[in-house]
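Q: A reviewer asked whether we had any structural model of the full assembly, not just the individual parts. We don't, so I'm hoping you can provide one. Inputs are below.
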Amino acid sequence: MTFRDEAFKIRSLAMQHQRFFSESIPLIASENIMSPLAMEMLTTDLGFRYAEGLPHHRYYQGNGFVDQIEDLTTDLGKRLFQSRYCDPRPISGTNANTSVIYGLMKPGDTVAAPDLAGGGHISAASFGAVGLRGLKILNYPFDPETMTIIPDEASKMIIREKPKVCLFGQSVFLFPTPLREMRDAFQEVGCRIWYDGAHVLGLIAGKKFQQPLKEGAEIITGSTHKTFPGPQRGIIIGNAEEEVWKKIQRGVFPGTISNHHLNSMAALGVTLAEELDFGEAYASAVIENSKILAETLHSEGIRILGESRGFTESHTLVADVRTNGGGRKVAEDLEKAGIIVNKNLLPGDSSKDSQNPSGIRIGTQEITRIGFSKNDVRDLGRLMSLVIKGRSEPEKIREETRSIKSNFNSVKYCYGKLEPYKYIEIFGE
Ligand SMILES: Cc1ncc(COP(=O)(O)O)c(C=O)c1O
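A: Here is a predicted structure for the entire assembly that you could use as a starting point for your response.
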């Protein structure tokens, strides 16, 4: 193979990937699809340029339009989240988190965070970003059935251990964090409250999940490509005092990035505007669909976590499939059927089980974005249950999913109506 052949091989694989996803039903809880207008931003010259620092105080020439885009994006972020501050520069949720960690804490400080086994994210683990900063980590007690922090016990822990920062927010995020219930403990200890809203940012934007800034959080970090349907990127919003905010901004630049990927910042700006117009309707439909999918799977005899509280109040639901062959087998079978989910550790699994955990995690934000109605979701749930329970060969279901998916070819809740999987074939097939 020549180098040219290899280059075209990569292109061909990318196109095969694209076709595969265009014919599959995407249910990974941390993914989404962008609007055509936001996608267009990624292809602009902005993607080749540098801008370091803050607007109007740059180190390079040529940033006049970039400054205007960044000002607008920052302002849209503040309006959408009704916050005093917004920094749209982090290039991922993890980058937003490291910026806050560098801004707020020093090696040896203590941070309280959700347990990985309770849905916490690796950036809050000893082998993730907080560990790299040399912080001491405490985990909140949580209810394994709802994967939610137990406020009374967590309050006692906070009062006893006096962490400098209390971090909340999860990667398996079924129910709002009981922030108000822990307020007395926060006040007694005087800790900083930081909410990692990576997963639920779009639901917060749509005002259909808790509003952390109104419930005591000073800072929210997030990914902008999960329930918030924008580019792969991050954001920080907050109401902290100016001095604290400045420290966090220094954690972004020069702390953890130099350039901040200007094309995806423009895509973020576009998506913030679209969320101001369509975010509330979108977030309602996402949550409605996740409840319906949970109820359908439950009625088909599949164990869904959180039954006592109605399974979920977010985009996510979790199925315990240990009696159906385990998370790995079920996720692989669903993939063969053209339905994409991820296997997931459940509370009580050992970390050694990470390749074959007891659960699968399912999210409805992407199917909602392409227009799945309640009835479509019910049909999907019944199809999934056939695969999960081993009642039908996954390959036989594959044709059905392909045919279902062919009815969902455009992105909703945004400006413009282009098909999502159209790409520019500069060199032909
Ligand atoms: C709670 C939480 N925080 C942070 C992140 C990291 O986000 P990113 O993938 O954008 O770096 C994730 C990713 O899934 C997450 O679930």
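A: Points you may want to mention in the reply: The pocket of pyridoxal-5'-phosphate is lined by residues 30, 92-94, 97, 121, 123, 169-171, 196, 198-199, 223, 234 (CB under 6 Å). The longest helix spans residues 262-299.
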